[in-house]
Input
Amino acid sequence: MAQASTTLGRERRYGKTQRVDRWWLEPLLVAFGLVSFIVYSTVSALMGAGDPPIWAYEAGPYLSPFFEPIIKPAWLPSWVSPALLILGGPLSFRMTCYYYRRAYYRSFFMSPPACAVVEPAKSYSGETRFPLFLQKLHRYALYIALAFNMLLWYGAIKSFYWEGEIGIGVGSVIMTANAFLLMMYSLSCHSLRHLVGGGLDCFSCSNFTNTRYSVWARISQWNEHHRFWAWASLISVGVTDLYIRLVANGVVTDLHTFTAPFVH
Amino acid sequence: MPTAHLKLWRGDDTGAYQEYDVEYAEGMVILDVVHLLQATQVGDLAVRWNCKAGKCGSCSAEINGKPRLMCMTRMNTFVPGETISIAPMKTFPLIRDLVTDVKHNYGVARKMLEFAPGAPAADGDYRMQQIDIDRLQEFHKCIECFLCQDVCHVIREHPDNLNNFIGPRFILQLAQVAMHPLDTNEKSASTADHWGVDYCNITKCCTDVCPEGIHITDNAIIPMKERIVDESFDPIRAIGRKLFGKK
Amino acid sequence: MVDYETHEYDVIVIGAGGAGLRAAVESSATGAKTALICKSLLGKAHTVMAEGGIAAALGNVYEQDNWQVHFRDTMRGGKMLNNWRMAQIHAQEAPDRVRELEAWGALFDRTADGRILQRDFGGHRYARLAHVGDRTGLEMIRTLQQHAVHRGIDVYQECTITRLLKDGDAIAGAFGYWRETGRFVVYRAKAVILATGGLCKLFAINSNSWEGTGDGHALAAWAGADMIDMEFVQFHPTGMVWPLSVRGILVTEGVRGDGGTLRNRDQEQFMFNYIPPMFAAETADTIEEADRWYTDKVNARRTPNLLPRDEVARAINSEVKAGRGSPHGGVFLDIASRRDADYIQRRLPSMYHQFKQLADVDITKDAMEVGPTAHYAMGGVRVDAETTATTVPGLFAAGEVAGGMHGSNRLGGNSLSDLLVFGRRAGLYAAEYANAMPNLPGLNGTDVDTAAEEATAPFDNTGRENPYSIHHDMQDSMQELVGIIRKEDELGEARERLQSFRERSRHLRVDGNRQFNPGWHLSLDLRTMLTVADLITQGATLRKESRGGHTRDDYPGPDTHFGTVNIVQRWTPDGAVAREEPLPQMPHELAALFEGDSHADSAS
Output
């Protein structure tokens, strides 16, 4: 029996824990992933400014998802990227998303950095006060996100038509996959799950509630993988943008069946 | 027989970690090793336990810093020769060794919303469909080990919140009343501010440590947060209520 | 003078499992000032370990079911040694007690029309057990706990009672200590309800938590109460056998109720070779018929896998002794080859979890290894069937600590219903007794001093005996000599060994101080366990026959004489004194339910 001199570990020193596993790895990877996306998307979106754009975002029937729907009112100065006008929609959805909240509270706010690891903050009020109080607006962001989902599907379908011709290209496949992943991200949303049926106390009470139960049960299955859909759709939206930008700027050549050339 | 190298908290707040070597048999769990230690070396080692089968939730502790049940932590999950640290739960006041004072939780239990059923059917039986109670049965799996309360940073890191926030275990209990198909409590009773549901920032540590695998965050806390939004923060519903009377 | 705190109540309930909680709720509802005292934290009692369900003839699944059928099953399961009136009250009141739980928030699994679903269990004619997957006990205790807490009942947690206090012949309260601080506490009360549960920690292989040390049995015996049927200990046929660390942990009978079958090393479904004459008429004798029974209860007879527990435990024991057991000394329980994985996970989630986590066995793919484990004491404090009053005025008992209800063998599912039915009655009648009493009984200071001395004695001893070793040795002796199969000479040896353990326990060495000291706690529990072991061993010696939970190698069959008597014991300063008492006689209309039975005594 040997005596060790460590104390119980109740003292509140940031980062203090008795965990011996690599608890810092997950928050670090998450932070890396989020920062990478934020940097890329910001740069990419800003480079949509100018007429013609500094970095083109349309190639044939393909339109980058950062610019869908494309809104260019006359008053918009040419140095402002049209992406900025619509960015708020998807951004508000991801910012208030229950998964991303977990992710950034852990990785950026260190609240807590990981389970049973001491956090830096001296006081804590959770989501009870402004501004975090506004997380309650998630369901409105959801409505916006669902509208964007429809637009992206519209864009994806449109990508199979070019100059009166029906065809298919790598870009249209990518856009379709992207629309699908973004849709799944919305359809696995906690707020949607609540709205379709989770808010009911009795599922069996009528035919209508029974139907809502079936939808709720399906969404609940998707919801278990909300984190997966969140990341998959985040990556896909970035990849889709990157691909279309590369095609639009002549860096890569899109493989497709269209006979008309991709010029605007 | 393999030997476990334990680093175990002894004494009250002024105590210290002591290291012990304990020979154990194949197939054992941490709690067995602690019992061997108790029977052969440290007769007065304080530890709570009851069923030793993961059903009563008594032997909660922090093993290598992770909140776990000692009876459900098998020795073969450790690297042979590894020093295993066993500490009492840190959110609750320490009594001695591995035993903490969890009275706070029983105090919260007294204040919880009580289920209030309506009248049964004419034959005296209540009618409920399985689909209505599936999600509630998940909440009822709770064994009150209080590991979720222990790991929750809202109260672990900020004890001043103990008065404002009932904690994951009790949000589960709140949800089980709120979502009960026969309950007649006003909705506002389960969504009231004083339960403190919005203190939770859904970082999911409670779900991570739950030995029963209850999806505390996804199935209880987030739905309760959504119900709070329904009650007070949904302008569409508020207008609807104004126009058509209370739904 | 001893330093202690005092609390005054009309009724105190010792033990906060199902029976204790139900008793406290009822007592408090009458307006009696009630306290609930428990050794562990609230809600951790052994009731949480109950898996299968609550037996109650609700008739939701088979409308042919009614209290008479339930009564008949219970009596036959107990080999007719039950107190018939208790069995009758139990069968009649169980359905209401279950419905009441539902109104308090319990969520039983449902039938298609939204009523409480019932499952098959050993010895029950119809699917009768209201259940919640395989964690019914947890549901019951949590429901009662939340209900009791909301009634504002005072709860004293982690407080162990070591002595009952009396004023003359009548009960006056209880003496105990706080586990946390070791400080003494005296409860003055008009009535005391014992709801302390079981005693199977006496045996090496058991399914009980540490609390099952027979406290209530010993407290009542020391207070001079009659004990009854103490020789009957139920060995549940299916406990885990591997790994050693989980040996004894229960595997619910629900596995067999939901389609599981027992097999020996040769994959033979051996239960078909062990159908006793008493149950031959209603038990399938071919595998085909037995399998058909799960879906067709009307035309097929029930599977022998669901014979009463004593029969199945003995059969497993015989197979293992004959060398046909599994690698770790049990037999195989196979549901994997008979039901699909989804069904198993839905019906038996805790079992799936338990085997996966503790034994690394996936029960949807592989067979479980199981063997008998000491599970339940049929015997206990003798009580009045209507009121649960013991022979000591003011002392009541309900649940496992009370004897008589289950006769020589308890049917699965009848325990949880027993807790509710007699827990409620104990609360009701104890409160009635207390409410009729104008003043608190007197407190005898000398008794308190004696109790305190007794409790601190282990610290004053100068010996070197380790309480854990004594407990361990006692468990081995009881398992080996007073276990599932008993013999005259072995019982004699058991008595001698118990004497030596008693001697050793006078020379204990306890480390540390009185603050949360498990070594000290165990040394006090040793006293109760040794007393209870004496009672069991004496009863087992006197009952020279085999019946239910008592099997004598030297008297392999049932005996006509012993089929008509209970063994009643009373504790004296010189040890237990036993006598035989004739069974209470059943009225004709109930006796008529058993006409056509091969005489009960022909059961083996």
